[in-house]
Here is the input.
Amino acid sequence: MIWSGEYDSQVRVSSHSSKEKGFDGIEIPLFSSRRLQTQPRSEEILEALGLECNVTSAFLPGLSPISDDASIRARAIAP
Here is the structure.
């Protein structure tokens, strides 16, 4: 999350910068599964560069997949 707070096309650019600066991996912020589905080439790019990948996420207030409230659980897992 050094280069971008969103999972978008910037990930491709920052992957190259990360490798050039000596990092051995990147951390992708993922707050919506929809974003992950829009960047299918990222895995190929990371493999070609020899970079490891971690995904970071957080549940925001009102979005918990273990809530007692069914509507909150549904919103938390919705794409």
Q: What stands out?
A: The CA atoms of residues 29 and 76 lie 16 Å apart. Helices lie at 10-20, 33-37, 42-49, 70-77. The mean pLDDT is 77.
